[in-house]
UniProtKB/TrEMBL annotation:
<dbReference type="InterPro" id="IPR026147">
    <property type="entry name" value="Rab3GAP1_conserved"/>
</dbReference>
<dbReference type="Pfam" id="PF19533">
    <property type="entry name" value="Rab3-GAP_cat_C"/>
</dbReference>
<dbReference type="Pfam" id="PF13890">
    <property type="entry name" value="Rab3-GTPase_cat"/>
</dbReference>
<feature type="region of interest" description="Disordered">
    <location>
        <begin position="982"/>
        <end position="1014"/>
    </location>
</feature>
<dbReference type="GO" id="GO:0005794">
    <property type="term" value="C:Golgi apparatus"/>
</dbReference>
<keyword id="KW-0343">GTPase activation</keyword>
<keyword id="KW-0963">Cytoplasm</keyword>
<comment type="similarity">
    <text>Belongs to the Rab3-GAP catalytic subunit family.</text>
</comment>
<dbReference type="GO" id="GO:0005096">
    <property type="term" value="F:GTPase activator activity"/>
</dbReference>
<keyword id="KW-0256">Endoplasmic reticulum</keyword>
<dbReference type="InterPro" id="IPR045700">
    <property type="entry name" value="Rab3GAP1"/>
</dbReference>
<keyword id="KW-0333">Golgi apparatus</keyword>
<feature type="compositionally biased region" description="Basic and acidic residues">
    <location>
        <begin position="499"/>
        <end position="510"/>
    </location>
</feature>
<feature type="region of interest" description="Disordered">
    <location>
        <begin position="495"/>
        <end position="521"/>
    </location>
</feature>
<dbReference type="GO" id="GO:0005783">
    <property type="term" value="C:endoplasmic reticulum"/>
</dbReference>
<dbReference type="InterPro" id="IPR045698">
    <property type="entry name" value="Rab3GAP1_C"/>
</dbReference>
<feature type="domain" description="Rab3GAP catalytic subunit C-terminal">
    <location>
        <begin position="969"/>
        <end position="1065"/>
    </location>
</feature>
Length: 1066
């Protein structure tokens, strides 16, 4: 038994050479960092020895600047990630790096003076240069770590698969492993671990610094602000407690034990320095009704209504089919969802600030730097709600995708059957009476006369807008047929006296390029009949959402086509010339209408073609003329028919028949070639491709040639094949040389080799018989073609109709948006002579043309059109805000906002001290002597400010700007609006300045509200960045280092600290 026990103990061996999970985790981190080339980031020369404060100071390399504005740009950030495991938990190791600005401009740092001690210089690597720079403070977007610390690069470890790091011990274990890996590789990039869930934005981190320093990053978060830490002085006490947790304030400064002690103490660079940057943020996310871009009480005298045609007021008297009209009647809201106003004190010594429960020096109007950020809706549904023009096109496209392939006119029969079986009073009661009141309210006879004469009241866009508004307010309704008929009648109105004159004054250098690009779009000419119809279809369906209305419209449109066909009247607004050529550069629907017009033109031509003394031959589809087996011999006694004019050579001399030299060749009257739309042409090409016999293919394609031969023989009795070639193909009648017996050459003419060897032309000539054009079978059977088009239109489905009209609707929308864009650009350029950043209105015409050509309209909407329209709405919204604020601010002076944009040279606005006495808002700064004028503003200042608000993350300005006063006015109006909405009239607190006069009660500073008008509400959030340099941690004999603490006080309480410790002298 003893032997067996010894044997068992022999095999119980622990192999300590096997790597543990912890060691493998460290090795994996090192491998990933090596692969990303993040090793040896410390200068080797600084690792030779640990410098003391008396050591010479090497110069830091000049770094390229990374400001908070650049840190907020998501396009400047690069991200890499790799998967890693620790035990059984999977992690994602991510590396965030900022692409720095190419300009080698040094950043402004706090606590790094020009003659800084060497120890402080050595520990100031890239991470501390980022955290010490005030230029990196307050990035408005980006990763939370960028917001808390201003870092330009960092590593982040995130657990995957729903795992969380919920305990501090586990986080310390991971950070300890990372610290070992960073030290082994001399990597100075901070390393963070995500703590708890991602929505809490909690992190712990460690940073390896050169020469034996290490920075510890910690973040705490409370759901509520502790009562003892609501003010800066209390946060400063907390910061100092963290710095001097073990030692007193004065004993924590290093004092060398040598003869240079007096010189060391006299150096100001060794004194602890604490400075703080402060920012108060004010949020405005509830706009008063008058500030909303879309509201029912929108002033018709607004600058937008007069200046911009986007809102459609200038089109109220225009025809309903001229362009697609968006209805804003039932739209209430604004694309601008929030304003974030920040008042900032960039860098202030902590002893100069008093901020406690009893007194505060941090008054927002004393802040030297203000900044404003505009947040627009990011929800795709909301953006579609406001982009009414593009959304109309999207609704129209979706109608075609979900519609069945049944004929569109079947909806009329189905609706009739439903009315016969059951009569719904709710569907037929209110709309006709309301529309009657809109048009001719009193006498029914007057209404019927208006309908019969199609008065302009029935066809203007104002009536259609009212009709749409009523339909949208009462649900999906049917429009009475008499109104639909009136709109269709107006489509064919050829009176061009009321056409709007295009404004050519707003053309820029880019317009020609855009016009060239738009000319390539395969659609329909502007203001053509197909263009008008497409616009009217979209306008009627846009708000009613009732396919039955489209069926009615299509029925009346087909009736008009048949009327024009029977009466022999050409369709108006279709062809600029009188030829029968089909424009294959247009869409198929426009080609169909062109073909129909060609049929009408051929019908008119056929009826007036014959002479009065010749009886018209009766045309029939079943009439065929076969060639005779033997062609009769032609002589001088035969009667020529169908002659047009004598043929002449290049010298103007008549040409004669070869067989009858005294008889000139007569050019015959021929048939025009049959026009074909692209779908018919494609079917013909497909049919010919299926025929294997080459001679049969040529015969099928030679119908026009045979007709010309027959007409030529009828006009020129006794002619030869050579005579026909001399007229029809003169290039094949060439000069030939022949020699006689006397060796004298004489020039003769004959057929080319191609014609001599061609059997097809000879065969056709032998087959052709003398037949004038009036007795030939028609090459272009216009009657058959017209009936086929009408029959196809009568059986067309709603999906096919939408498919045919989509290119026209798309181009119409594009042209309208580009017109609105030109108006904005003209407004900007005419009122802002400087360089304006208008990139937010940039468009990619190449991409638009490509997506349009391939018919990907959904992607065209999402990628290009909706972004363009929403960018214009941003400009409209911001300009509207300043318009109303300006009008409110200068209500007593009766100054108009529009006057700023009429004469830039002479029209300016100056706030004098007299106005400042009347307006409390003008007393905005206590730090600067403003003098006799508070500020001067021009229209160009507003435009430039708006452009920067749109294109930049936030716009900085000073508290003395006039725009700052208008912004405060907007915040005050919003605060008053929210107060009035939340309280009843009897519960409101009147101010001391309330009076009973009408003038005083209308003034903004005498409204009943709990705070003074023109003042900012309490800040929504407070942020503090406290920086300290020259303080030794963790021991008083440690080398001094830099420290930082970020505090955020809003709905929650958050502190992000970065304290550095000397791990060499601790």
């Amino acid at each position: 038994m003893t032997t067996m026990k010894c044997d068992e103990e022999i095999f119980e061996i622990n192999d300590f050479s096997t790597s543990s999970d912890w060691e493998r985790f460290i090795a994996d981190i090192e491998e990933i960092l090596t692969h990303w080339n993040l090793t040896n980031s410390v200068d080797n020369s600084s690792l030779d020895s640990i410098h003391t404060p008396s050591s010479p100071t090497p110069q830091l390399p000049i770094t390229k600047i990374a400001t908070s504005k650049l840190l907020s740009d998501p396009h400047r950030w690069q991200q890499r990630q790799e998967s890693i495991k620790y035990r059984k938990v999977a992690f994602s190791l991510q590396f965030f790096q900022f692409k720095k600005d190419p300009l080698p401009t040094p950043s402004v740092s706090i606590g790094l003076p020009e003659h800084c001690p060497q120890s402080n210089r050595n520990q100031s690597n890239q991470s501390w240069r980022d955290m010490s720079s005030i230029e990196n403070d307050w990035p408005v977007t980006g990763h939370p770590l960028v917001r808390y610390y201003g870092l330009s690069q960092f590593l982040l470890l995130i657990p995957l698969n729903g795992e969380t790091i919920s305990t501090e011990d586990r986080a310390r274990q991971l950070l300890g492993s990372a610290s070992i890996a960073l030290h082994n590789l001399d990597c100075e990039i901070p390393f963070f671990c995500q703590i708890s869930t991602s929505n809490r934005r909690l992190f712990m981190g460690v940073g390896h610094q050169p020469n034996g320093f290490r920075t510890y990053f910690d973040i705490i978060q409370f759901p509520d602000i502790p009562p003892s830490y609501r003010y800066f002085n209390e946060l400063m006490v907390l910061f100092k407690k963290k710095l001097y947790s073990s030692f007193s304030y004065h004993s924590n400064v290093i004092t060398p034990k040598d003869e240079s002690v007096d010189e060391y103490r006299s150096s100001s660079s060794n004194d602890p320095t604490v400075r703080v940057s402060i920012r108060f943020t004010y949020l405005l996310n509830r706009w008063p009704t008058e500030y909303l871009l879309f509201n029912p009480s929108m002033d018709v005298h607004n600058l937008f209504v007069r200046q911009f045609s986007y809102f459609g007021t200038s089109r109220n008297n225009s025809k309903a089919h001229e362009q697609i009209m968006a209805n804003f009647a039932n739209l209430y809201g604004d694309p601008l969802t929030q304003w974030q106003l920040a008042t900032t004190w960039p860098s202030v010594a902590e002893e100069l600030i008093t901020d406690n429960a009893y007194h505060s020096d941090l008054q927002p109007r004393n802040a030297p730097r203000w900044s404003l950020r505009s947040l627009f809706t990011e929800d795709s549904k909301n953006s579609q709600l406001y982009c009414r023009h593009v959304e109309l096109f999207r609704i129209f496209i979706q109608l075609g995708n979900r519609s069945p392939n049944n004929p569109l006119l079947n909806l009329l029969l189905r609706n009739t059957d439903n009315h016969q079986q059951q009569k719904d009073e709710q569907e037929t009661q209110d709309i006709r009476q309301a529309l009657d009141r809109l048009s001719t309210p009193i006498h029914s006879s007057a209404q019927s006369s208006l309908l019969k004469t199609t008065n302009t009241l029935l066809v203007t866009s104002q009536l259609l807008s009212n009709l749409m508004s009523l339909a949208a307010g009462t649900g999906s309704r049917q429009i009475p047929s008499e109104y639909i008929e009136a709109f269709v009648e107006n489509l064919f109105d050829d009176d061009d006296d009321e056409k709007p004159v295009k404004n050519t004054d707003i053309k820029s250098n880019d317009d020609d390029n855009e016009d060239d690009q738009l000319g390539k779009l395969k659609s329909a000419p502007r203001d053509s009949l197909s263009w008008r119809l497409a616009n009217l279809v979209v306008n009627i369906y846009g708000q009613t959402r009732q396919p039955f209305n489209l069926a009615q419209l299509w029925k009346f449109f087909l009736q008009k086509l048949r009327t024009h066909w029977r009466s022999g009247r050409l369709l108006p607004h279709l062809d600029e010339n009188t030829t029968d050529n089909i424009d294959h550069g247009s869409c198929l629907f426009h080609q169909k209408l062109q073909m129909f017009n060609s049929c009408i033109r051929q019908k008119i031509k056929r009826e007036h073609q014959l002479d009065s003394n010749v009886k018209l031959a009766e045309d029939s589809d079943e009439e065929f003329f076969d060639a005779q087996d033997e062609e009769p011999e032609m002589n001088e006694n035969q009667t020529a028919e169908g002659q047009f004019y004598p043929l002449k050579d290049v010298k103007g001399q008549p040409m004669y028949l070869l067989s009858y030299p005294n008889r000139p060749i007569q050019v015959p009257q021929t048939q025009d070639p049959a026009p074909m739309t692209e779908d018919v042409l494609a079917r013909q090409v497909t049919h010919l491709a299926q025929i294997d016999d080459a001679r049969m293919k040529i015969r099928l394609q030679s119908a026009g040639l045979l007709s010309d031969m027959e007409a030529f023989k009828a006009a020129n009795p006794g002619c030869q094949f050579e005579d026909f070639i001399r007229w029809h193909s003169p290039r094949d009648w060439i000069q030939q040389s022949s020699s006689d017996s006397n060796d004298e050459t004489s020039d003769t003419f004959g057929l080319s080799r191609r014609m001599r060897e061609s059997n097809t032309w000879n065969d056709l000539w032998e087959l052709a018989r003398p037949c004038p054009v009036r007795r030939q079978k028609r090459l272009f059977n216009y009657t058959k073609e017209a009936e086929e088009i009408l029959q196809y239109f009568e059986t067309i489905s709603l999906a096919n109709l939408v498919h045919y009209l989509s290119p026209i609707v798309c181009k119409s929308i594009i042209l309208q948006l580009l017109q609105y864009r030109k108006e904005i650009l003209h407004f900007i350029r005419s009122n802002n002579r400087g360089d304006s950043n208008i990139d937010f209105l940039s468009i990619d015409m190449v991409s638009i043309e490509h997506l349009f050509t391939i018919g990907d309209y959904e992607r065209l909407i999402d990628v290009q059109l909706i972004e363009l329209e929403f960018a214009m709405l941003k400009f409209y919204s911001l300009l509207h805000k300043f318009f109303h604020s300006y009008e409110t601010f200068f209500h007593r002076q009766k100054k108009s906002f529009a006057d700023l944009f009429r004469d830039q040279q002479s029209t300016t606005t100056t706030i004098t001290t007299t106005v400042a006495k009347k307006q409390p808002i003008a007393r905005i700064s206590k730090l600067k002597n403003i003098g006799q004028t508070m500020g001067e503003i021009k229209g160009s200042d507003f435009i430039q400010f708006i452009l920067e608000l749109i294109s930049e993350p936030e716009k900085e300005f000073t508290n003395t700007d006039m725009i700052a006063q208008l912004i405060v006015q907007i915040f005050a109006d919003s605060d008053r609006f929210q107060y009035e909405q939340s309280t009843s009239v009897g519960d409101r607190i009147p101010t001391a300045t309330t009076t009973t006069t009408n003038e005083s009660s209308s003034d903004n500073d005498k409204m009943m509200k709990p705070i003074t008008s023109g003042s900012l509400p309490p800040p929504t959030g407070k942020e503090f960045i406290i920086r300290a340099t020259g303080i030794s941690r963790p021991a008083p004999y440690s080398r001094p280092s830099s420290h930082r603490m970020y505090c955020f006080l809003a709905n929650d309480f958050r502190i992000a600290s970065a304290f550095t410790e000397d791990i060499a002298y601790f």
